[in-house]
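Thread: NAP complex, take 2
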Amino acid sequence: MFQKNLLQAKRVLITGGGTGLGKAAAQRFLELGAEVYICGRRQEVLAATVQELHQSTGGQIHSHACDVRDAAAVEQMIEKIWADAPLDVLMNNAAGNFLARTEELSLGAFQSVIGIVLLGTLHTTMACGRRWLAAGRKGEGEKVVLNVTTTYTTTGSAYVVPSAVAKAGVQALTRSLAVEWGDRGIRMNAIAPGPIPTEGAFSRLLPRPELAEDAKKRNPLGRFGTTEEFANLAAFLISDGSGYINGEVVTMDGGEWLQGAGEFTALGRQLTNKEWEMMKPKPKKTKE
Ligand code: HXC
Ligand code: NAP
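Output below.
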């Protein structure tokens, strides 16, 4: 789908790049010539991913164990990365989420998810953004921040309220800084994926496997997304080819949220052929 050297010479940090969608993006970016840094809390997970992806792609991949909730730890990680050379791309992908009845949540539960998703994104974005802005246009090429949100940032969603409020904040950050920093060479966009099977998401959000079939029925395409589809979109959005896309949230969900939102969608799907026939206009009687 892309030229082999599409991301040649781009240096990319993917938070939460040791697993799931972040790992799939790391693999695609390496295949396309980027140098990739991944971070996450679990050192052993990162080390296994570095080894696997280096072997499968031959690309340059490094890792830093870092909890993005901790601003000082993020600053330290970014300082270490910059000591090698500045980054070109920051992909804020790390997240925390779980299904819960909101009235039963502790303050700690809110703080945990908002800390990872919203503050974590802020910490990395500020650490990289300040360095890019200080270097001005002297830095080679354009800088890109790509955030990962969800399809419920605008609608909200019951039972994942900490995630919904945090991701909505990330969406606001994306659109705000796209404007504030755009004229200084930094583009900022987001991907809002629909359900894509990963261990991290599905183990926490799909308590019974058979619920997956219902979820697919709620999607016009009748299936989940794939990690490859996500990684290809991410590769495009961090590439120079998408240079005029700024402040955009690209939904990739097979049309799922629109199906949920359409007033007559559910009703139409329940009607029988006979009922559709009955809805048609009756032939007009011609006057003799
Ligand atoms: C209620 C919960 C809870 C649950 C944890 N807590 N799990 N409350 N229901 N299921 C509360 C704890 O009681 C605690 O509150 C606080 O949250 C922090 O919990 P810890 O276990 O100490 O936190 P930690 O080890 O830091 O783990 C963070 C986490 C965990 C967010 C809770 O799930 C995690 O590590 N997630 C990372 C990966 C992830 O979530 N991936 C899925 C992303 S999918 P107290 O008050 O005791 O301190 C996604 C979008 C999907 O984001 C959209 C699909 C379409
Ligand atoms: P995942 O595999 O659980 O990915 C989350 C990653 O974030 C993990 O690698 C985790 O590593 C890391 N992480 C969590 N807390 C962290 C912290 N405090 N500091 C640093 N890293 C942390 O789930 P995923 O499905 O790939 O999700 C990736 C992104 O896609 C998330 O932003 C999620 O909201 C979004 N998304 C996913 C779906 C889906 O259906 N899969 C749909 C919509 C949006 P550690 O645990 O080692 O820290």
